[in-house]
């Protein structure tokens, strides 16, 4: 499974989101390649799940990846809920 954590520059909130997602995935024993990337890169990389903010989520919808907006990048509960929604789709 390929997960992209997306923010404007690829090294701010996306890194925080990446760390949160990796922790949640490890706790769930789900193997995934998680990357922190900028918005431009996210548009050209194939992924299964994209976690990002509300603004970018609306712009990344419509592709093959499941896109989920995250409000609190450090919230394990919110990220876990998004991952569960993806896994159960």
Topology:
Blueprint: E1 2-7, H1 13-27, E2 33-38, H2 39-42, E3 49-52, H3 54-60, E4 66-69, H4 76-87
Parallel strand pairs: 1-2, 1-3, 3-4
Helix pairs in contact: 1-4
Class per helix and strand makeup: alpha/beta
Unreliable spans: none
- The radius of gyration over CA amounts to 11 Å
Q: How big a fraction of the residues is strand?
A: 15-25%
Q: Kindly report the average pLDDT value.
A: 94
What would the principal axes of the Cα set say about the shape? globular
> What's the CATH C level?
Alpha Beta
Strand order of the main beta sheet, please?
2-1-3-4
CATH superfamily: Response regulator
Residues in helices, as a percent range: 40-55%
The CATH architecture is 3-Layer(aba) Sandwich
* CATH fold descriptor: Rossmann fold
Total count of strands: 4
Elements, N to C (H/E): EHEHEHEH
Provide keyphrases for this structure.
single chain, 89 residues, alpha/beta, Rossmann fold, 4-stranded parallel sheet, PTS sugar transporter subunit IIB
Provide a short characterization of the protein structure.
Its EC number is 2.7.1.-. With 89 residues, this protein is an alpha/beta fold. The chain is built from 4 helices and 4 strands; from the N terminus they run E-H-E-H-E-H-E-H.
Can you describe this structure?
By secondary structure, the chain is α/β, with parallel strands linked by helices. The protein has a single domain, classed as Rossmann fold, CATH 3.40.50. The chain is built from four helices and four strands. The protein has helices at 13-27, 39-42, 54-60, 76-87; strands at residues 2-7, 33-38, 49-52, 66-69. The chain has a four-stranded parallel sheet with strand order 2-1-3-4, sandwiched between helices. Helix 1 packs across helix 4. The radius of gyration is 11 Å and the shape is globular.
